[in-house]
Design a protein that fits this description.
The complex is a heterodimer of chains A (about 240) and B (about 100).
Chain A (H helix, E strand, L loop, with lengths): L1 H9 L4 H23 L3 H21 L3 H26 L14 H25 L7 H4 L3 H10 L4 H22 L10 H10 L11 E2 L10 E2 L15
Antiparallel strand pairs in A: 1-2
Helix pairs in contact in A: 1-2, 2-3, 3-4
Chain B lengths: L5 H20 L3 H26 L3 H31 L13
Helix pairs in contact in B: 1-2, 2-3
The chains are: A mainly alpha (about 240), B mainly alpha (about 100).
Amino acid sequence: MGSVLAAAHAGGGGTAEAVVFWILAPIALIAALAMVTSRNAVHAALFLIADFFCLAVMYLLLDAQFLFAVQIIVYTGAIMVLFLFVLMLVGVDRSDSLVETLRGQRPAAVLLGLAFAALLGAGVGPAIWDLPSRGVAEANGNGGNVLGIARLLFTDYVFAFEVTSALLIVAAVGAMVLAHKERTGPRRTQRELSMRRFAGGHVTPEPGPGVYATADDANEPVAVATDSRDSGSYNMGDE
Amino acid sequence: MTLNPAYYLFLSGALFSIGAVGFLLRRNAIVAFMCVELMLNASNLALVTFSRINGTLDGQIMAFFVMVVAAAEVVVGLAIIVTIFRTRQSASVDDANLLKW
């Protein structure tokens, strides 16, 4: 990584940059494809995290050290944790519905994506092929990338930066409003909950998943399924 | 041997296309949302690359603002998904058809 950083600081790239790019670019593409095709939503999230890490290292190659840190902290750290959190809250649903609400939408979508990629490659590609790369070493000035970005952010872009704070506050309040659940009845006390529990069938909690129970009565001991000892040994801690 | 910066832009375009196709294909709202994130990241890569090509930091600043907007968008979007899931018991985009005529 030291040589990569040195190459990035030189601004002109170098062999190290090319090597790292050609290792990371296929990984990023494969991870993106795997994210789109994986059935399990958690796997999709993990592939997306791999993709974000590849992009973070590419920011490092492109002499954007500040965005490298922000990418890892904000994207892989905060946003993807939020994704996984909601995924667990909603429940990992393996079944992607195969019902076609619009006929021929899936082939049309793939065709559209390929056409868009071809358009970018054939239409924009020749225009960007021979662009000279100036490098941001001069724009960074003395003090490095973080100072250069801070200088721009708090002078030319200070208004946009201030508006960003309003955006973040609105987003936070909006999320609270959306996720808030109105209580329709009065709050049940512990005493009422306890009385309801004893009035119902189960005084003890229901047996959890993985528990081998023939009865869920209160006075019936529970055998655990992973218990390898012979029959009659219950999970009561007696030896 | 220096790397042609156009390769970064091609990678960015490929990632954006994959994200777009995924958004159109997937029915799980959360996975569709992840595809939007992939598209935003692809555009960020293009912005940072153009920043290097032009020799100014404005592209990196734009990428930073895109990240901020993406964070706000994720917060609100996931809250909406949770709310829809609470009322319809499903995270599939096909089931949220109450506003359909």
